[in-house]
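Teaching note: in complex prediction, the entire set of molecules is handled at once rather than each chain in isolation. The prompt given to students was simply: 'Predict the structure of this complex.' The entities are:
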Amino acid sequence: MTCPFGHGKPPSRRAFLGAAGGLVAVAGSSGAAPPVAKTLAQSAIEPFWGPHQGGIATHQQTHTYFATFDLLASQRAQIVTMLRAWTAAAARMSTGQTAGPLGAEPAKIAPDGGAAIGLSPARLTITFGFGAGLFVKDGQDRYGLAAQRPASLVDLPKFHGDQLEPARTGGDLSVQACADDPQVAFHAVRELVRLAYGVAQLRWAQSGFLPSTPPGETPRNLMGFRDGTNNPPHSLSDRPATADLPRAFDRVVWVGEAGPEWMRGGSYLVARRIRIALEHWDRTELDFQEEVIGRHKYSGAPLGMTGELDDLGLEREDGEGNPVIGETAHVRLGSALANDGAQMFRRAYSYNDGASFTAERWPPWRQGMMYDSGLFFLCYQTDPRTSFIRMFERMARFDALNQYTTHNGSALFACPGGIDEGTYIGQRLFETAL
Amino acid sequence: MTCPFGHGKPPSRRAFLGAAGGLVAVAGSSGAAPPVAKTLAQSAIEPFWGPHQGGIATHQQTHTYFATFDLLASQRAQIVTMLRAWTAAAARMSTGQTAGPLGAEPAKIAPDGGAAIGLSPARLTITFGFGAGLFVKDGQDRYGLAAQRPASLVDLPKFHGDQLEPARTGGDLSVQACADDPQVAFHAVRELVRLAYGVAQLRWAQSGFLPSTPPGETPRNLMGFRDGTNNPPHSLSDRPATADLPRAFDRVVWVGEAGPEWMRGGSYLVARRIRIALEHWDRTELDFQEEVIGRHKYSGAPLGMTGELDDLGLEREDGEGNPVIGETAHVRLGSALANDGAQMFRRAYSYNDGASFTAERWPPWRQGMMYDSGLFFLCYQTDPRTSFIRMFERMARFDALNQYTTHNGSALFACPGGIDEGTYIGQRLFETAL
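The expected output is the structure of the full assembly:
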């Protein structure tokens, strides 16, 4: 071996990789054995192709990395080229492969940064969304797509109490990677960022996590309460996103005939970064916390009930004629019953970005270094106008939980229907508009 | 059941919990079954008591939450009271219990916020450290401990290129929680924050993660390179922190006769928050990345070699008499050989705090939203003066990697020796100084 960088050395694991089914790219670059994911358990792979995008009905992974992008492209064709590349790379990465096949040219920028080499696919899903800016930006129809903007892809109204930061709000495109390993999720988005050079650039990003919760249990959020109990029922097992799910879930989540053709089988995603004054919460009496939420903390049962899945019983009164679950309780204001049947599917993560200096908005108006932590609220629905917006306009005014929460980031995206093998994300939109 | 809040309802799972060995606190509060960690696998519990604190020799968990505190106390006795409470709560939490036994008084602030109820202990370790401010602050001997300040607990010098932010630097005390679940780690620190009210307050905090890496493999960092290959050898299996580890590790990490009595079996922790210009790195050719690091990316082998564990061979030259591993390569400057034998044990995590506006410090001086991500570097040693400081003074000037990195947070803590059951963290310090 004379060349100190080992160029030209044969890729010693090629044979092994062939035998392993070719799931992982083979490369002979840079004088060393090529990378390989050694434990590619099929159970750790979520389907990428199908009638719906992954990451929505998918049993929730423990980590997410969510990013939005501003489009820089002057031509629609540039976006199509990028979306083709994104689709190909996402399909590869969801099976544990590198974003592109690793070549044998170490003097070039490698087609994958390598941060997930050797890791499990970790049930990676990548969910793409289109923001209003793809269709119209500052009044301009930049890409000839304005006529295709769905009526449901509104500009979100300003809600009571909103303290939105531009650097955590909006975006022309969204990419959400979810995986059971934070490095797998972050790696996936980074590789897509690389494929977007000159066409789209990162606008903001947020990582999130869930605790490892036994199957069938509702995870607790950072307030210590179970979060998601009242979601529309669907199987929480690891069934593929393409499987038939109970109708309640389908009706709430997937766009049907009412939407534009390219949105059928898709869903609208609302993202809200909700900072929680955990210091304040942690100094709050247990029974007041339970009144604020409307549930018992430990069991998750509605106030006065014993089972997490017991009916809320919003009509129940105590001996003095007061509602058992108060008028401003979080679960009442978030219930379908109190919102003319409005529902959405919550797929939220907790977030934890350390600590920063903050002045609390509520008594006793503490100031100081506080947790920059809370809920990265994500929900899916067929039409945000009749679900999230309708529900949150009242919650933002009346929810007792608002004493502890501040919404400082926000975005709405149209997540197109699923991707058939051989096509690219949003192809039906771009073909329709040609 | 007449009381809507269900007070007075007998705790229905008391019998079950008794049978389960009493690992989890029993409570009959608030009208619902009390919480219980259902899957308390003994294998998920790291020992808390022993000659060394956990979280140092412990096989590295996948998540960390690190916090530092400013002391508010006017009396030393207040600190002792808090450290007793911290020790008791940490011991309980490391076995999956709540920070304190849950009572039956819902009108009070509960002795645990509940965010980890039902979760696995997740190999939680909690590692305490004492900063210089415990001994002397602004020239004041606040607690009569100044004479006990170890010579090794220096004020870190300003290193070349440092861009330290006060809100990520220093602290009178440190608490590091490590666990295989991010919510378990965060919960543990939050509960200690609650026990510190009036005595110490949060100064800054940082969360971090590692990929799930197969046993025996060195995890890759966000630059795609294996990180930690040259650590002093010790078993990477899940053996308890109290087990005998190979002497090389012991010699590098644990303070012996040279330290003050209360530091014996302890270690000095240097923490550095290192933002990495990943956008810049991701646009760098593979062979240049490898020259910067001094290793091949995929195999982890030293340049020109084939095995990750091959000797660096720093003396090797190419055909033209140039060193194979360059003078400014990261591995050369970080090697014991190039630092008169100086060594430390690296126990770093990656961090990912989303994105923020940044101006790069290097050509082509990009400005914009960039990943706020990088390495939360943590290392342990018997004396930082002859290990981290000695090594990093040269690295900060010459390391080729500096083109991509910015140190914006920093701290040094003396982590006392382990805790014997019935005592509290640092007891030997506080008793000595009485």
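Point out the following to students. Strands of chain A lie at 63-71, 125-130, 173-179, 200-209, 267-276, 345-346, 349-359, 367-381, 405-415. Chain A has two domains: 1-34, 51-432.
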